[in-house]
Amino acid sequence: MKLSKYLAAALLLISPATFAAPPGSAKDKDKDEVNRIENAGTVMEEILNVPDDIPQDLLDKARCVVVLPSVLKAAFVVGGSYGRGVLVCRTGEHYRGPWGAPAMYALEGGSIGLQIGGEATDFVILVMNDRGASSLLKSKVKLGADAAVAAGPKGRDAQADTDAYMRSEMLSYSRARGVFAGISLEGSTLRPDGDGNRKLYGRDASAAEIITESKFQAPEAAHKLISRLQKASPTLKS
Fold first, then answer.
1. How many domains does the chain have?
2. 15 within a domain of the structure (yes/no)
3. Domain span holding position 143
4. Angle at 90 between CA 176 and CA 122, to 5 degrees
């Protein structure tokens, strides 16, 4: 009995900090966002390492790039879930600066589930003009209605200056089982992932604020993605 009393008294004297979660555990809620960004960096690096994937002149004209790694068909069938990824844009006026901090984005609905089959699929979307970039930063965008989208051409000799591509605000690609190809995403929507951005940056932040304001610093997890884009296309050429 006395032993129990002594034990209880000893526990009261121990600082609550003793029972606090170890350093880093508080960031467990951010783990999904960090993994998402790291996976996006790996996807972009692998795709850009193949010259016959995205034509260089298209990448040089892109204001922003959306990368959605490992989207599964099941995510669009069960519970109305969606694919999640990141948007990275060039900084500065008219998107003429270096690539900046990422914003979390989600891809929803449409005919995606039918197109991607049963395996995990990576999506890459090039945002080709100021209007397309601005529309993405403001709100949810329905591809094909709010913004013109086309399946992107591939290969270094692709004719990227055709009318279809010149009119499109976005060009979309997919990669499944190592096969990279242009894909139509008409009918699906892209929207800012407010919850993901809040977890990543530790406070409420709109996609527009993250992309356009220099006070938002890219997290360490984004360094691979940003540096690979910067190496591949350091300057906007349109």
1. 1
2. no
3. 31-232
4. 10
Q: pTM score, two decimals? A: 0.82
Closest CA to 105 of 45, 5, 7, 37: 37
φ, ψ at 152 (rounded to 5°): -75, 145
Report if residue 23 sits inside a domain. Answer: no
CB 136 within 8 A of CB 64: yes
Q: Does residue 115 belong to any structural domain of this protein? A: yes
| Phi-psi domain of 117 (left: phi exceeds 0; alpha: psi -120 through 50; beta: other) | left
Q: Which of 45, 42, 87, 84 is CA-nearest to residue 63?
A: 87
pLDDT digits (tens, 9 = 90+) for 95-104: 999 999 999 9
Residue type, 171: L
Rounded distance between C-alpha atoms, residue 107 and residue 141, angstroms: 10
pLDDT 10s digits, 123-154: 999 999 999 999 999 889 999 999 999 999 98
Say which residue the tokens 């591939």 belong to. Answer: 154
